[in-house]
Design goal:
This is IclR family transcriptional regulator. Residues 6-67 form the HTH iclR-type domain. The chain is an alpha+beta fold and 213 residues long. It has two domains: 7-65, Orthogonal Bundle (Arc Repressor Mutant, subunit A); 73-212, GAF domain (Beta-Lactamase), CATH 3.30.450. The protein has helices at 7-20, 28-35, 39-51, 68-73, 76-95, 138-148, 197-212; strands at 55-57, 63-65, 98-105, 108-115, 131-133, 157-160, 167-173, 182-189. Helix 5 packs antiparallel against helix 7 (197-212). The chain is elongated.
């Protein structure tokens, strides 16, 4: 902590992070141990966070993340989209294919930003807001591959004909972005993904990840 930071706010944010990392919630005693503060401090922090609906406590007294975080989360996608657009535009123009940024939303993959090339005669229509299972399509499969890989760059994923018989795709996961799980990819009308596309998609994913750090 420095003179310019707030100890109380820091503790409150640490509470939220701890709760976000567990599926079963935490008791006051567990939070007290993990924060290294007494139970009275934890009670005050939880009471304040509850007033803003950022924390809720179940009948057993375990604290969990509250629905208020959803209101904050709605503002995340526009910020992520804005940060990713330069890299997506460059990717779409370079490859001549529709580029997209996809994030995990529950058990689905959700396209939050899409850029179509300006110079091609035709390309795949792919819209922001498109949602699909994580295990279907290059975007979702790249994310799943990153979950299984060690904490190094897991490469890129190719698919063919999963959405349309005449389309194929390539995607690479975002690596090293705290709190964001997603991928950058392209979808194109072709029999197969050209060899240079995979590495180029990986470059774009690195650029987006750097913009989000």
């Amino acid at each position: 902590m420095t003179a310019e930071t707030s100890q109380t706010l820091d503790r409150g944010l640490r509470v939220l992070k701890l709760l976000a990392d567990t599926d079963h919630g935490l008791t006051v005693t567990e939070l007290s141990h993990r924060l290294g503060v007494n139970r009275t401090v934890v009670y005050r922090l939880l009471a304040t966070l509850e007033q803003h609906a950022l924390v809720r406590r179940d009948l057993g007294g375990r604290a969990r993340v509250g629905l208020g975080v959803l209101r904050l989360g709605r503002q995340v996608h526009p910020l992520v989209r804005e940060a990713a657009l330069p890299a997506l535009r460059a990717l779409a123009e370079d490859i001549g294919a529709t580029a997209h940024l996809t994030l995990v939303d529950g058990s689905d993959a959700l396209a939050v930003a899409v850029v179509e090339p300006t110079w091609t005669d035709y390309h795949v229509a792919y819209r922001a807001g498109f949602r699909h299972p994580l295990d279907h399509g290059a975007a979702g499969r790249a994310i799943l591959a990153a979950r299984q890989a060690p904490p190094v760059e897991p490469g890129y994923t190719l698919t063919r004909g999963e959405w349309d018989a005449g389309a194929c795709g390539a995607a690479a996961p975002l690596i090293g972005v705290t709190g964001v799980e997603g991928s950058v990819g392209v979808v194109m009308l072709a029999d197969a993904v050209p060899e240079r596309v995979g590495p180029r998609v990986m470059d774009a994913a690195r650029e987006v990840a750097e913009a989000l750090r």
